[in-house]
Amino acid sequence: MLPALAVLLAAVCFGTTGTAQAFAPGGAEPLSVGAARILVGGTLLALIAVGSRMRGHTPRSQPIPRRPTRGRLPSWSLVAVGAAGVVAYQPAFFAGTSANGVAIGTVVALGSAPVVTGLLAWPLTRRAPRARWSIATVIALAGVVLISGVLTPPGAGSASGVDLPGLLASLGAGLSYAVYTLASKALLDRGATPSGTMGAVFGVAAAASLPLLLTTDWSWLLTPGGLAAALWLGVVTTALAYVLFGWGLARLPAATVATLTLAEPLTAALLGTLLLGEVLAPVAAVGLAVLAAGILLLTLPTRNRAGLSPEPGRPHSAVSQDVSAQP
């Protein structure tokens, strides 16, 4: 339960991202906000990783063979791919929430992520996701569809005038999320530690975000509201959230983690309604309950067919490397 709860708590932190952006000054562009978020959060994660190793709390990674197997990317490539996914996610996510609101933008972005992650993980690991993940994901995505309002007739109280470019931006954010989740999982499966993995991926992303930030109008950072928004986005929704996320990802399959993070759109939808005055149709309230049911199904503890814990002597990390393993 603890890895699942860690991912859920991380998802709750993620879920405040769109709301924090909404409270940022009006002149803050999505690209600028995203770059500032990763610059602050990625730098903190890199410092945490360095500090952990200097204190001796982070064990060394398992050695990687000098001659990688066919089709296996070197670790530095995985870090680069993961960092690219992190950088691409930011402007796409914020553009989607700016166009269609925090609730719908977050729901579409994170609602698409589990499906993309599971489908990409399938050929990468040569293992099909098991029935429990599939059922839980279908239930959760049904809730996502209900929340998005696409099935609600016009004039029935749903959010009208969904912006197509904004919708595509949110879908791009979901794809970017899948990319950096799978890249991070691959590093963890090779023996990298959670803090080292998050520090490397987000540290590189932070270095790439600095020139991006400087190409935008970053004067909003000089205002009290802008500084507060940037610190919340960097410290809470990035550094703290990804410490929890990395710890859970090291112990759970990537597809399972992607489904658990659907607690993010659940949180975002509630915050958008309660704090930002965004209106959700009555059917969206049903969608929230359905989404929560799918997450709960995936979170509840389970036993294997023999009703036992993993075999004695078999390390838990070996179990977690199976993308089809149960949470």
From TrEMBL:
Which GO cellular component does the record give, naming just one? membrane
Region Disordered, annotated ranges:
307-327
**EamA domain location, by residue?**
4-148, 165-299
Q: Where is the composition biased (Polar residues)?
A: 318-327
Give the record's membrane topology.
Multi-pass membrane protein
Q: Name one Pfam family in it.
A: EamA
Which N-terminal residues, if any, form the signal peptide? Answer: 1-22
Q: Which residues cross the membrane?
A: 32-52, 73-95, 101-121, 133-152, 164-183, 195-214, 226-245, 252-273, 279-300
Cellular localisation: Membrane
Which controlled-vocabulary keywords does the entry list? Answer: Membrane, Signal, Transmembrane, Transmembrane helix
**Protein family:** Belongs to the EamA transporter family.
Protein's name in the database = DME family drug/metabolite transporter
**Species annotation:** Herbiconiux flava
